[in-house]
Amino acid sequence: MAETKKVGSVAYASRDASYFEKRGLIRHANAWHLWALGVGAVISGHFSGWNGGLLQGGWGGMLVATIIIGIMYLGLTFAIAEMSPALPHTGAAYSFARTAMGPWGGFLTGLAENVEYVLTPAVIVFFIGSYLTGIFETPDSFQPVWWILAYIVFVGLNIWGVALSFRVTLIVTLLALVCLLVFWVSAIPNMDFSRWALNVGPGGVELTEGNGPFLPNGIMGALAALPFAVWLFLAIEQLPLAAEESMDPKRDMPRGIILGFLTLVVSALAILTLNPAVIGIGSFALGSSGEPLLDGFRAIYGDGIAKVLALVAVVGLIASFHTIIFAQGRQIFSLSRAGYFPTFLSETHGTRKTPHIAMVGGACLGLAVILAVWFLAGEENRGSVIGFTLLNMAVFGAMLSYIMQGVSFILLRQNQPNIERPFRNPFGVPGAALTVIIAAVTIYFQITGDAAYRAGLAGVAIWFAAFTVYFALVGRHKLILSPEEEFALEHQAPAN
């Protein structure tokens, strides 16, 4: 009979070695694999999603928003670069918060990330389906079939084995970057920056002759663009979820995430500068486009090769879809292994040692959400609900997790100064504090933004309420001494 140990408001049930043998992972990833995991997760946001901010603040406002969000991610990535090798566990954000703030803090942080990692691939697969519908000229009603096929293929690749998963991650990430590089080189001789990039006037109107103001809606317009600038970096924080599959997490985690962040900074500034400036497009038209990179290619090369260009755009979506499926599985795995979620979800494949149940469970949940929206929202509202409401739910979950991770870093610096830190964040507590502040400001502008965005917050509230009730009534009485929990208890983390 399993023994139970009470610690504060939670109870730990003992498990023998067989419990963890059924939940084993294989170390395979090097620094380049980790770099690809971080960059690949984000890269679809450079193909589309960021451009909505052009109508909020014009090109100048979007640039200011990108710089502000870049500062937030600078503080976050360097904080993670310190915490992840110091706490090299699959739990990542949950692990950091668990050690800093106890089981409730760890659970709520993990839950915020869970919102992001379940819903983000669901939104990405919607865009994949939209592109494939145009390429293969299938009826609109066939889109759910594309989603199901995409989930089957990429969940299957992730289940097949960690070596194959990281190999595919590296390949699709490099292909996506090559697509972007081709666009940048093509755009340079085909741009007129003042005429096209600066064609948004006060109130978001189009200036037919361009040469508009740098900040057409002032600083408030730039702040309103913050949620859109997030898409240029969103999900790089998933990289530490591969900690227990990294060959040398203490060395490679800081290298992978910092190199990934620097890669994304270069790509973000390039796409923001070149895409709106291409002759014949402009910031005004691009601001409402669902496929800004594809529009840029069409303006340069014409519509004759539209289907080929659409396939190019799909590469970026596939890179992010594949890598976030990886993160989704590890995130659910870690919370399940520790007992926060039902423990059967954390069993790994007998021979391939991948968290197949967690990946299938997360995929089924995300697919169920998007299918429910598809059939219930009505034909006219499907695109906006999936493309805005669900997307905003994912961003909101991410911002909450950033706040919690920033606070975790500060508390770990103050309360756990003796933890071994193979890498030390040069920006320290001020950098983490800036991350918390900017994330909170971004949430404010999400709340005060479009009604479709605000509707997503109700969905997140329901999500949190359902899982919090489960944890309060069941989960907290059945926690397991997983590596994250043992580390936290050994370092005298608070019990509540």
From TrEMBL:
Keywords: Cell membrane, Membrane, Transmembrane, Transmembrane helix. The chain crosses the membrane at residues 32-50, 62-81, 115-133, 145-163, 170-188, 214-236, 257-285, 305-327, 357-377, 383-404, 425-445, 451-473. GO terms for cellular component: plasma membrane. It is a multi-pass membrane protein. GO terms for molecular function: transmembrane transporter activity. It is found in: Cell membrane. It comes from the Bacteria. PANTHER family: AMINO ACID TRANSPORTER-RELATED, MEMBRANE PROTEIN. This is Amino acid ABC transporter permease.
